[in-house]
Amino acid sequence: MSKRAIITGITGQDGSYLAELLLSKGYDVVGVVRRSSSPNYWRIQNVLDRIRLRPADLLDQLSLIRLVDEEQPDELYNLAAMSFVPASWDQPMLTGEFNAQGVTRVLEAIRQVNPKIRLYQASSSEMFGKVREVPQTELTPFYPRSPYGVSKAFAHYITVNYRESYDLYAVSGMLFNHESPRRGLEFVTRKVTDAVARIKLGLADALSLGNLDTHRDWGYAADYVRAMWLMLQQPHADDFVVATGISHSVRDLVEVAFGHAGLDWRKYVGLDPRLIRPAEVEQLIGDSTKARSQLGWAPTVDFTGLVTMMVDADLERVAAAPRLVDRLSTL
Ligand code: NAP
Ligand code: F7E
């Protein structure tokens, strides 16, 4: 019989790739969507006829209990979150409600309905923040630098705590930045590749950025959802760092992206101090030795391959619908 999985955050970048992966493995996939006045299904268009969507919200405990009770999944992937770091300073309490207490609600739903359900919790390298050691491993102490990072640290520890308190199979994937052509337009990789496409096609002539000197360990989202699935197939629940082990600056990102389109970035990129964060995570680099040896996981796309893939996808998308893209990017 096929396994059933619930994915919260299915309309997001990772949710869409995970849905495709689980469908390819024969899963019955149930996606959680929150009510909105207009549907936001562009990332899951190609799987909509093969999944089931159910309404629930991380803010609403009863909606989660009802969902888990009625679906009785084998696995639950909790990917839903307020995931944009700058927004967490604007809405710190809502960020905590979604990302921290929201996870407690998911854990409670599993504990009360069926403690045999396996849970994947989306932890983040933002928990390492002002890093205490280089590179970061599963044992590196946390020092989060934003309300987002703090909320994810809570979520991480409450997952560990429920595992140890109630013997749940609940794991946290400590994932470093991962990107794709489906990345939200506000994150720096996609902001850059979208701008490169619009500049190349004559629809824009400038790009404002914040700190060009921060470093991130960037990987490809489709590789990272494979690690999520592997983490739920192990004999024992455990937490894993998922990262490429190679770090690049935002400046490197800009150089590769503009260079791929034959553009000199210095002519177009300006600095806007309003994009500098109140507290910054300067440098992240992950050590995924444990995931590689115990899960057999490895990334398949390197930094240059990732950035050029994203530039090519944005060039194609913008060329196909320049007016629509222009309107969306001003929202
Ligand atoms: P994303 O594209 O921003 O997607 C977030 C998803 O969460 C969306 O489907 C969103 O639904 C949903 N959501 C937000 N609040 C919700 C609520 N109250 N109830 C139900 N659903 C809600 O994020 P992503 O990049 O795919 O990341 C997936 C997860 O991994 C997140 O938890 C993120 O914090 C974490 N993470 C991401 C990275 C990364 O580099 N991408 C790294 C480490 C950890 P709507 O479409 O309705 O907004
Ligand atoms: O910023 C710098 C910015 O917003 C990366 C989320 O998925 O990964 C993501 O968080 C870096 C930062 O991602 C701009 O200051 C410069 O140093 O793409 P980002 P993030 O904050 O690293 C982690 C692992 C998550 O868990 C999060 O959910 O780029 N930067 N100029 C800029 N960043 C943005 N967004 N926009 C700029 O104009």
What is the domain tally? 2
Largest sheet: 7 strands, parallel
Order of helices and strands: EHEEHEHHEHEEHEEEHEEHEHHH
* Mean pLDDT across residues: 97
Strand content: 5-15%
Bound molecules: NADP nicotinamide-adenine-dinucleotide phosphate, ligand F7E
Radius of gyration: 19 Å
Span of the ends, CA to CA: 45 Å
**Would you tell me which CATH topology of the largest domain applies?**
Rossmann fold
Q: Which regions contain 5 or more consecutive residues with pLDDT less than 50?
A: 326-331
- Secondary structure: number of strands: 13
Number of helices: 11
CATH class descriptor name of the largest domain: Alpha Beta
Find the CATH superfamily of the largest domain: NAD(P)-binding Rossmann-like Domain
Topology summary:
Blueprint: E1 4-8, H1 13-24, E2 28-33, E3 52-55, H2 61-71, E4 75-78, H3 85-90, H4 92-113, E5 118-124, H5 147-166, E6 170-175, E7 178-179, H6 188-200, E8 207-209, E9 215-216, E10 219-220, H7 221-231, E11 240-242, E12 248-249, H8 250-260, E13 269-271, H9 289-295, H10 303-320, H11 322-329
Parallel strand pairs: 1-2, 1-4, 2-3, 4-5, 5-6, 6-11, 7-10, 8-13
Antiparallel strand pairs: 9-12
Helix pairs in contact: 1-7, 2-4, 4-5, 6-8, 6-10, 8-10, 10-11
The protein binds NADP nicotinamide-adenine-dinucleotide phosphate (NAP) and ligand F7E.
Structure notes:
- There is one protein chain.
- The protein is α/β, with parallel strands linked by helices.
- It has 2 domains: 4-179 and 220-242, 3-Layer(aba) Sandwich (Rossmann fold); 188-216 and 247-284 and 300-325, UDP-galactose 4-epimerase, domain 1 (Alpha-Beta Complex).
- Helix content is 42%, strand content 15%.
- It has 11 helices and 13 strands.
- It has helices spanning 13-24, 61-71, 85-90, 92-113, 147-166, 188-200, 221-231, 250-260, 289-295, 303-320, 322-329, and strands spanning 4-8, 28-33, 52-55, 75-78, 118-124, 170-175, 178-179, 207-209, 215-216, 219-220, 240-242, 248-249, 269-271.
- The strands form 4 sheets. Strands 3-2-1-4-5-6-11 form a 7-stranded parallel beta sheet, sandwiched between helices.
- Residues 8-9, 11-15, 32, 34, 36, 40, 57-59, 79-83, 98, 122, 124, 175, 177-178, 184 line the site of NADP nicotinamide-adenine-dinucleotide phosphate.
